[in-house]
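Appendix B. Extra example for self-study. Work through it before the problem class; the solution is given directly after the inputs so you can check yourself.
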Amino acid sequence: MSLLSVKDLSYVYSQGTPFEHTAVDSVSFDVERGDFIGIIGHTGSGKSTLVQMLNGLLKPSAGAILLDNINIWDKPKEIRKIRFKVGLVFQYPEYQLFEETVEKDIAFGPTNMGLSESEIAQRVISAAQFVGLKQELLPKSPFDLSGGEKRRAAIAGVVAMDPDILILDEPCAGLDPLGRDVLLTQIYRYHKERGNTVLLVSHSMEDVASVCDKVLVMNKARMEMFDTSEKVFSQGEKLASMGLRIPQITAIMDSLIASGFPLPKGTLTVENAVRDITEYLKREGRL
Amino acid sequence: MRDITLGQYFPADSVLHRLDPRVKIVSLIAYIALIFCTFNYCSLAFAAVSVLTIVLLSKVPLKMYLKSLKVIIIIVIITSLLNLFYGTGEPIFQWWIIKVTWAGIHNAIFVCIRIVCLILLSSALTFTTSPTDLTDALERLMKPLKLLRIPVHEIAMMMTIALRFVPTLLEETDKIMAAQKARGADMESGNLIKRVKALVPVLVPLFVSAFRRAYELAVAMECRCYHGGDGRTRMKQLHMQVRDIWSVVFTLVVIAGVVLLNIFFHYVV
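Solution. Structure tokens for the complete assembly:
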């Protein structure tokens, strides 16, 4: 049984008006417990609409979302409970901070869940640790933090709800290269240590390739591919036709293969590429 | 939140759209004054027909006008009823404290038609004039006030910026609300106090972002050497055209017509 099962999901904006526009068109896929899935697609391909349906912020025009085999819209009054189970971190989440202290802001989600105070305090501390937010920042005002720290605090606010599935919409947008590496590593560690399911929406193929096991490709409101990262990124031409590209290292390896070097297809990280090339050179006796 | 329409410009290719916005504003004021200076049914009908002509000339779908009328229909009904029951003279129908007189019926009809005409005319202005044209024209028209040391340019600039940021802030509100809902904020249930409290997580980030945007806009304007209205030239100069003169002529004809009808038929009602 899949943790999350999406069946023929569609979403139409402004239905019945001249501005009618289908953002998501009969998308079906299954998410297993412990998956780390990257969602990629061109701007306007329906990624954000899709993830907002997964946690019940948008009600699908057609189709169903089954969480633990239960349709999340069976009891519309209890949709908030779904939002605690499927945590969604929006793009630029730092703009949603509002409390007097970082601590209180992280506690907003858990408080809404109706947890006990001791439980909340514990969750705030562990969430802050998970996103790498220093303890001494907790009593500060969120507006006094630096950009990167604000982003972490906002992500911690969702992590503190301990959702079964964590969805992040472009978590690294606008961060410097070091900041994005650190944040990605932390998200990856969060996924490994807690065994939680993570969905990562991103424009950066490098980010997706470095952390995700599976990749879902959206194009013009439809799901084009859903497979392991290696398989998706070994179809460079198909991705290019959708305005997407493959990670730079995969492109380099592909052109090496095209020039006749017997290297494995679908290399996703620089480390793997180095390993494969060294192995090849050793085999050839050149190293 | 998206349903709020402000600055309801409706792009189309009509004479009214092409008219100088200054002419349109001044004419609007003239027409409003005129509608309240109709003293008998003949002049009222004449004014109403002129208003309908303008509405048709605007090439904006009648549905849009009906939409803007829908908003004020309750006001029209209430004022008509009040006028109906507070007429003076011989009652033709009386029940308890309710008394209907011929004067009351006339008043009710007049008020009803006048308000409808008023709304149709002002809608015609906002439908056919983009917000920027409107503020530009207001700035030009208020220029004489500069002599009284009223910062006309700054007021117009503030209006332009305010109008420009309405959709932006609405979108921002939508986003923040969705983000807080994702953290379990409950904005749909509870009593009034609870609901007001539930707005804090939306209002605080909204104000923060409004200030941030204001600051960024100010920096961007200074980077482009904006220093207020003095010595500032415009890309789009407003020029009176032949059609503007014809529109003024049309307005004058309507005014003359109403005045004449008022005089000749004053004994009818």
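Self-check: The mean pLDDT of chain A is 90. If your reasoning did not lead you there, revisit section 3.
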